[in-house]
Amino acid sequence: MPLLLSSFAGRSFQSGIFRRRTDTSRSRKSEMATPPILSLVLPSETGRVLSIQSHTVQGYVGNKSAVFPLQLLGYDVDPINSVQFSNHTGYPTFKGQVLNGQQLWDLIEGLEANDLLYYTHLLTGYIGSVSFLNTILEVVDKLRSVNPNLTYVCDPVMGDEGKLYVPEDLVSVYCKKVVPVASMLTPNQFEAELLTKLRIGSETDGREACNILHAAGPSKVVITSINIEGNLLLIGSHQKDKEHAPEQFKILIPRIPAYFTGTGDLMTALLLGWSNKYPDNLDKAAEIAVSSLQALLQRTVNDYTSAAFDPQSSSLEIRLIQSQDDIRNPKLTFKAHKYS
Amino acid sequence: MAPPPILSLTLPSETGRVLSIQSHTVQGYVGNKSAVFPLQLLGYDVDPINSVQFSNHTGYPTFKGQVLNGQQLWDLIEGLEANDLLYYTHLLTVCDPVMGDEGKLYVPEDLVSVYREKVVPVASMLTPNQFEAELLTKLRIVSETDGREACNILHAAGPSKVVITGIDIGGNLLLIGSHQKDKEHSPEQFKIVIPRIPAYFTGTGDLMTALLLGWSNKYPDNLDKAAELAVSSLQALLRRTVNDYTSAGFDSQSSSLEIRLIQSQDDIRNPKLTFKAHKYT
């Protein structure tokens, strides 16, 4: 029989009779000053991330995949859940609710009214409509009016393996409006091709795609997986200033014979986390991110196999909780090869 | 392609799968923001249903956001059910009967009796504070004996585990825990003396409940040990919070403090045992 824990204790509001009195603390009256945001005040190599992604009750995609790793790396993360679904769309069915642009903006206004809009980073992933994407652009402007040095890490989720899985009209919005305001972009091969209108059939093409994207906006670009002649590569590129050619590198990635969900969202979060700790060494940040992700994927396949499941018979839920040490203290198992 | 099997069930593990139905605030550490991360650190797969999504908690002068209604909550449960995803080892739920009440005390007596008559009987573990324990038992708690008696009353109504998280007795702050292992024997009861910290915090209650869930599942027959670990973690976090605010030049009594949850993750994962439970004989 399942164990039930029911608590009245987790009350977050001043709701009269259920006012918290825990330890020595009494529920505060609203005349008291609002607490300062310590993650900004104290010197630290981490920061405060606003992450606008989907939330699934079960499973590890969107914010479920991105927030925990960033918290493990020491970031205070403020998630705005663009949807709340029972589970991800890899299942036969799902139910839940979607946020519209106005509701997103309400949350931003709530934060603004309390002077809570100072973020070091903005992170976005899958966005399902042009109207929501346009509201995101307004969020970028608003956040940058508070912190002009905001780093916007954008995963331009549009499709994979040649298939578009967002409405077609999003592509030009990403191209014309989003890419120019992104600080770091993490497209996959298909998305990089869509954004640059370039077919990527070689490493040279991959590097050229990065150059095109730099010219459009972001100083950091990571094309997270490119299929070139049977090999899987990550190509990264950092344009430190306009006068010099970007520093570019590649990492060879093993093919794992299995399908996973949520790995893209996790990868982008890891790239944000580590590139902020190594701001001048995107190659090092990528090595660490890849090492973490690969360890997690290996563990996932092993765990499913040990439990007597054929890892190729379904897409696998990543073992995120069980891999937290690989995220916090990854063993560096991958090396970036710098292009000279 | 077939949907993935839920590994957290098939693999033998000392942790489990928790459904946590609490509020979500974009900024700050209350509700699910306070409960989910610690449980994940302790190795649990946590499935959060966010009963609300607010910009920040209501300790601030203002907040904006959306509330889930009963039907929307049920839609999520139906979505999970349709995919055979309703197997949980633990359910963590919070009922918030009143929201945005501008700090006014408001007692819907019939709601209290609903909790008492319907919710308490189905709970396996209850973590009321002193005020809530008094409401549920109709007993005034002014001594340790009263606290233990309140636990007995609650056991009789339902839960085999009760932790009254902060009781003011004679100037001291106490936690009183009680585990009735079977109906034939009297419950094993204990207390932990808790220091008074001269500061206000938000989210500590939600965090405490999550820690009690997490540790009591790892030590199912030793509620006293679970409580020692939970209190040790929480106190380390509170001390760090006060220290960090003070180091940053803030008077820790001038505002309620946001708990340093992220910065205290080691205290949650591997707490130093600094508090001892005193068993009542």
From TrEMBL, chain A:
The keyword Transferase applies. GO terms for biological process: pyridoxal 5'-phosphate salvage. GO terms for molecular function: ATP binding; pyridoxal kinase activity. It comes from the Eukaryota. This is pyridoxal kinase. Its EC number is 2.7.1.35. Gene3D superfamilies: 3.40.1190.20. InterPro entries: PM/HMP-P_kinase-1, PyrdxlKinase, Ribokinase-like. NCBIfam families: pyridox_kin (TIGR00687). Belongs to the pyridoxine kinase family. The lineage of its organism: Eukaryota, Viridiplantae, Streptophyta, Embryophyta, Tracheophyta. One of its GO terms (cellular component) is cytosol. SUPFAM superfamilies: Ribokinase-like. Pfam families: Phos_pyr_kin. Residues 125-273 form the Pyridoxamine kinase/Phosphomethylpyrimidine kinase domain. Keywords: ATP-binding, Kinase, Nucleotide-binding, Transferase. Transmembrane segments: none annotated.
UniProtKB/TrEMBL annotation, chain B:
GO terms for cellular component: cytosol. Its EC number is 2.7.1.35. It is an enzyme of class 2 (transferase). The keyword Lipid biosynthesis does not apply. Residues 90-235 form the Pyridoxamine kinase/Phosphomethylpyrimidine kinase domain. GO terms for molecular function: ATP binding; pyridoxal kinase activity. Keywords: ATP-binding, Kinase, Nucleotide-binding, Transferase. One of its GO terms (biological process) is pyridoxal 5'-phosphate salvage. Belongs to the pyridoxine kinase family. This is pyridoxal kinase. It comes from Durio zibethinus (Durian). The gene is LOC111314654.
